[in-house]
Task: structure prediction
Amino acid sequence: MRKYKFTINEKDYNVVVKGIDDEIAELEVNGNPYEVKIHQLEQKVPKTPILVRKEVQNKPGENKVAEKLAPMPITAKPSSKTINAPLPGSVVKINVEAGSSFNEGDVLMIMESMKMENNILAEKSGTVVKVCVTPGASVMQDEALFEIN
Result:
């Protein structure tokens, strides 16, 4: 039961809504009972709030990791005379020694990282000048594995 006070044409009305059953409302206006048919003109708006999220704004420098993980174009590959570790791990097996020549795509070394064995491949043909690590050694990312010519 709800009570309301209406003013219509500057006359006050005390309205008590006793109940609503489908389209019929039982009202009492200034003590007089009425049954009123309700015509629904508007759709009910749900009381449950709608969650609206803001668009995610990237902060400067947030995409640096994705940029570093993107594959390098062939023209941007390092021209240095070393082959560096692509990820941290430990050396399992070295397939070449100082003075050995190799071709592009040869497996130079096997590293273990995150319990997976990873082949370290030659990006270009050349000769090993120096092996910078030993089997069983732990290496960090970008640490030199081989000096090549």
The first strand starts at residue 2 and ends at 8. The radius of gyration is 39 Å. The chain has two domains: 2-37, 79-148. The CA atoms of residues 95 and 108 lie 5 Å apart.
